[in-house]
C-alpha cells in the first residue's frame, strides 16, 4: 500500500496552456511587496506549484494577486460605524482588477484630485443656489367627497396585511397593532438621557461651536469699534496737527520779520552818535507779549541780548552809578519778561561759584552756564560797579550805594547780588569799622553798620563782630557825667540780651555806683541833682533788681544819715523834713518804689521821722541813728537757715532757667552782685565772675561755673586749686571779703 501510494502520480498546480492567465502589470507598492517576499519559503512553494508574480491564485487565476490585507475598525465601533469603509485597499484593487465598479468614496484618489472634486461640487452647488427656480404652473385638481373617502379606504386597507409590527423606537421594543401608534410617539423635547444620545452629543457640539463663533464675532466687532474710534481720533489729531503746524509756520514767519527788524535797528544804532535803547522797545515788547512761547522755546533772548549789548556797553561807559542809580532800570524793567535769569535755590548742598553764586553740586557743568542777560551784566555792568565801589564810594555815606543796589535788585540774578555784597561792599565796610575812631572818624560807628543790617541777611555776624568789640571799648571809656550814651544804647538790638546785660553790669553799673558814692552829695540847703539824674537815666535800661540794689547800697545810707542829722537838730522844722521826704520819693519812678529794697529804704526814713515826732525838741539830740541794713543780707544766726541750693529758684531775667541764672538770683537775694570779671580761669578756661557786695566790683569772691556747680578759690591755708563750693559758702565768703 505504501508502494502504491508512493508510485501514485502527484497532482500538480501547473495550469494547462489553454487556461493560463496572463500576468497583470503590478503597481509600485505591489512590486515593492513582491521584492520583499522573494526568496522566502512561501514564495518558493508557490513557484513550484506554477504560480507567477502578477497572476492570481487558482487554476484560472481568479484568486488574489497579493496576500490578504487587514484593516482595523475603530475601537468599540460596529460595522460601518460613522461611515467607516470595511473594504481594504487590497480588496478595492482586486475588485477593480476583476472589472467591478468602485464608487468615488471607496476609491482612494490623490489628495489633490479629491480637493478638486470637492471644490467643483461646491461651485456647482453654489451656482445652483443662485439660479432662479423655474416657474411652475400650479394645476388645481378638484375631487369629490366620495373620491376622497374611497382613496382613504384604499390606504387604510393597504396596511391590513402588514402582519406583526414591532415598535423599536423606544428603550424597550413593543408590539403595536398599527403603524399609526408608532408615528404617534412623542418626538418632542425630553429630559430622558437614554433617548438619542448621539443626537444629543452632536447637538451640544454644534451649540458649543456656534457659541464660540458668536463670541469670536462679538470680540471682532468690539475690536472693529475700537479700531474705528482710534482711526477717528487719529484723524482728528492729525487734522489738528496740520492746523497747528500751519499756524506755527505763520507765527514763525512773523517772528522772523521781527528778528530781522531788531537786527536792522542794531546796525543803525551802531552808527548813532548818542546810543539809545528806545528803538528796540516796540520789537522786544511784541516778542515777549505776542510770541512768548516761541521766545522761550527758541531762546530768542540770545538775539535780543546780542543786538542791545553794544548799545548797553556804550551807555554804561559814561554812567555815574552813585549819582544816577536808576539809569537804564526803566527800560530793562519794561523788558523784564525778556531777560531770562537762572533761579538757583540756596541750601546746604550747594557750592559757591562766581563769588556768591551757589549751585547744586549734583548738576552738570552745562547747567551752570549763565544766560545771555546774566553774561551781559557780568561782563559789562559788574565791572562798572566794582570800579565805582572801590574807587569812589565812601562807607560813611552808605545811602547812594544802598539806593543803587535797591534800584537794580529785581534786575540782578542772585549770584551777582551776592558777589557785590561779599566781594565789594562788606570788605570795605569791615575795613572802615576797623579804622573807625571816635576822635578821628567823621560819623558815628552805627552809621557804618546799621544801614546794611536789612541787606546782609545771614552775614550779620560777619559784619557786626568787630563792631561789638568797638562798642565795648566805648563803654569802657564812658563816664557817668557824659549822660546816657544814646549812640551806644542803639546797639542793644545788635547784641544778644544776656550779652548786653553783661556789658552794662561790667562797664556801667560800677560807674553809676561810684557816681552815687563819690560825686553825689545830699544837701537839703543846696541840692545838686545832676549826678543823681545821671544815674536815674539808666532806670529803663537796667534790671530793676540790679538798680534797686545799687540805690540800696549807695543812696539810702547817705540819705538816711542826712535825715537823721536834720531831725536831731532841736530847731528842725518837721514839716520841711516831711516835704523833703516827699520830694525825694517823687524822684523815683513807680517801677522802683514798688521794689521791696526801695520801699525798705523809704520805710526806714518814715520810721525815723515818726521817732523824731515822738521826742520833744530838747530830746531830739538823743534820736538814735537808723540801723539800716540792706534787705536780704543774712545775719550770722541766719547763715545756717539760708536757702539750700537745691531748692527751687526763680528764673533768669530772660525767662530761661539756667544754673547761672539760679546762682545770680541767689546772690541778688543776699544783696550781692554777680558781675562778669572779663577774665578766664587758667586751667578750666571758663569765664570768671565777681560775687561782690559793692557795685564797683571791689572785694568779693571770684568764681566760675562748670558742670552745674560753683567753683571758688581755696580758703586761707588751703593749698588746693579752685574747688566746688555751695551757694551758702559763696555768699558767706563774698560778704566777709574786704574791699
UniProtKB/TrEMBL annotation:
It comes from Tulasnella calospora MUT 4182. It comes from the Eukaryota. Residues 13-22 have a biased composition (Polar residues). Signal peptide: none annotated. Coiled coil: none annotated. InterPro entries: G_patch_dom (IPR000467), GCFC_dom (IPR022783), TFP11/STIP/Ntr1 (IPR045211). PANTHER family: TUFTELIN-INTERACTING PROTEIN 11, TUFTELIN-INTERACTING PROTEIN 11-RELATED. This is G-patch domain-containing protein. One of its GO terms (cellular component) is U2-type post-mRNA release spliceosomal complex. Residues 1-26, 95-117, 626-653 are annotated as: Disordered. Residues 38-84 form the G-patch domain. Belongs to the TFP11/STIP family. It holds the Pfam family G-patch. GO terms for molecular function: nucleic acid binding. GO terms for biological process: spliceosomal complex disassembly.
Amino acid at each position: 500500500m505504501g508502494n502504491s501510494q508512493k508510485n501514485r502520480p502527484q497532482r500538480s498546480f501547473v495550469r494547462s496552456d489553454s487556461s493560463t492567465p496572463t500576468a497583470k502589470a503590478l503597481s509600485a507598492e505591489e512590486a515593492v511587496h513582491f521584492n520583499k517576499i522573494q526568496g522566502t519559503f512561501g514564495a518558493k512553494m508557490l513557484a513550484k506549484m506554477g504560480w507567477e508574480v502578477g497572476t492570481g491564485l487558482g487554476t484560472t487565476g481568479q484568486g488574489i494577486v497579493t496576500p490578504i490585507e487587514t484593516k482595523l475598525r475603530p475601537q468599540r465601533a460596529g460595522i460601518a460605524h460613522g461611515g467607516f469603509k470595511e473594504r481594504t485597499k487590497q480588496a478595492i484593487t482586486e475588485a477593480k482588477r476583476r472589472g467591478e465598479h468602485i464608487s468615488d468614496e471607496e476609491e482612494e484618489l490623490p489628495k489633490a484630485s479629491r480637493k478638486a472634486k470637492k471644490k467643483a461640487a461646491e461651485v456647482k452647488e453654489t451656482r445652483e443656489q443662485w439660479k432662479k427656480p423655474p416657474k411652475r404652473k400650479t394645476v388645481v385638481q378638484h375631487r369629490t367627497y366620495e373620491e376622497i373617502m374611497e382613496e382613504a379606504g384604499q390606504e387604510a386597507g393597504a396596511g391590513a396585511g402588514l402582519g406583526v409590527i414591532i415598535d423599536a423606537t423606544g428603550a424597550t421594543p413593543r408590539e403595536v397593532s398599527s403603524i399609526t401608534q408608532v408615528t404617534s410617539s412623542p418626538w418632542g423635547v425630553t429630559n430622558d438621557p437614554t433617548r438619542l444620545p448621539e443626537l444629543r452629543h452632536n447637538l451640544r457640539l454644534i451649540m458649543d461651536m456656534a457659541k464660540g463663533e458668536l463670541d469670536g464675532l462679538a470680540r471682532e466687532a468690539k475690536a472693529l469699534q475700537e479700531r474705528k474710534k482710534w482711526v477717528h481720533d487719529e484723524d482728528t489729531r492729525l487734522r489738528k496737527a496740520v492746523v497747528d503746524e500751519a499756524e506755527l509756520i505763520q507765527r514763525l514767519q512773523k517772528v522772523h520779520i521781527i528778528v530781522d527788524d531788531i537786527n536792522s535797528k542794531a546796525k543803525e544804532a551802531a552808527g548813532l552818535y548818542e546810543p539809545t535803547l528806545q528803538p528796540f522797545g516796540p520789537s522786544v515788547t511784541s516778542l515777549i507779549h505776542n510770541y512768548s512761547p516761541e521766545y522761550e522755546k527758541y531762546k530768542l533772548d540770545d538775539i535780543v541780548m546780542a543786538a542791545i549789548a553794544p548799545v548797553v556797553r556804550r551807555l554804561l561807559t559814561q554812567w555815574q552809578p552813585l549819582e544816577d542809580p536808576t539809569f537804564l532800570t526803566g527800560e530793562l524793567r519794561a523788558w523784564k519778561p525778556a531777560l531770562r535769569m537762572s533761579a538757583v535755590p540756596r541750601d546746604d548742598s550747594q557750592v559757591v561759584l562766581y563769588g556768591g553764586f551757589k549751585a547744586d553740586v549734583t548738576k552738570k557743568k552745562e547747567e551752570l552756564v549763565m544766560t545771555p542777560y546774566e553774561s551781559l551784566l557780568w561782563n559789562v555792568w559788574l565791572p562798572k560797579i566794582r570800579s565805582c565801589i572801590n574807587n569812589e564810594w565812601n562807607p560813611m555815606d552808605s545811602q547812594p550805594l544802598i539806593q543803587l543796589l535797591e534800584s537794580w535788585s529785581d534786575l540782578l540774578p542772585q549770584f551777582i547780588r551776592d558777589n557785590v555784597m561779599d566781594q565789594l561792599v562788606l570788605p570795605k565796610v569791615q575795613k572802615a569799622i576797623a579804622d573807625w575812631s571816635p576822635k578821628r572818624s567823621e560819623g558815628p560807628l552805627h552809621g557804618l553798620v546799621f544801614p546794611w543790617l536789612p541787606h546782609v541777611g545771614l552775614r550779620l555776624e560777619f559784619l557786626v563782630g568787630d563792631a561789638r568789640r568797638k562798642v565795648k571799648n566805648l563803654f569802657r571809656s564812658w563816664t557817668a557825667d557824659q549822660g546816657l550814651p544814646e549812640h551806644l544804647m542803639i546797639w542793644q538790638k545788635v547784641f544778644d540780651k544776656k550779652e548786653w546785660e553783661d556789658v552794662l553790669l561790667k562797664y556801667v553799673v560800677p560807674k553809676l555806683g561810684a557816681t552815687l558814692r563819690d560825686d553825689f552829695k545830699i544837701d537839703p540847703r543846696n541840692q545838686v541833682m545832676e549826678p543823681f539824674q545821671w544815674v536815674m537815666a539808666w532806670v529803663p535800661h537796667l534790671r530793676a533788681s540790679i538798680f534797686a540794689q545799687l540805690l540800696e547800697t549807695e543812696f539810702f545810707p547817705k540819705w538816711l544819715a542826712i535825715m537823721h542829722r536834720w531831725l536831731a537838730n532841736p530847731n528842725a522844722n518837721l514839716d520841711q523834713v516831711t516835704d523833703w521826704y516827699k520830694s525825694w520819693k517823687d524822684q523815683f519812678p513807680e517801677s522802683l518804689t514798688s521794689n521791696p529794697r526801695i520801699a525798705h529804704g523809704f520805710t526806714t526814713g518814715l520810721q525815723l521821722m515818726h521817732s523824731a515826732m515822738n521826742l520833744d525838741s530838747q530830746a531830739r539830740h538823743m534820736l538814735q541813728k537808723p540801723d539800716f541794713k540792706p534787705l536780704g543780707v543774712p545775719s550770722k544766726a541766719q547763715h545756717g537757715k539760708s536757702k539750700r541750693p537745691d531748692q527751687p529758684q526763680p528764673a533768669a531775667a530772660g525767662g530761661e532757667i539756667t544754673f547761672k541764672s539760679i546762682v545770680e538770683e541767689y546772690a541778688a537775694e543776699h544783696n550781692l552782685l554777680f558781675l562778669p570779671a572779663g577774665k578766664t580761669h587758667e586751667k578750666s578756661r571758663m569765664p570768671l565772675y565777681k560775687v561782690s557786695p559793692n557795685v564797683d566790683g571791689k572785694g568779693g569772691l571770684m568764681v566760675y561755673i562748670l558742670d552745674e556747680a560753683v567753683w571758688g578759690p581755696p580758703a586761707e591755708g588751703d593749698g588746693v586749686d579752685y574747688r566746688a563750693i555751695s551757694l551758702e559758702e559763696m555768699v558767706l565768703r563774698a560778704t566777709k571779703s574786704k574791699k
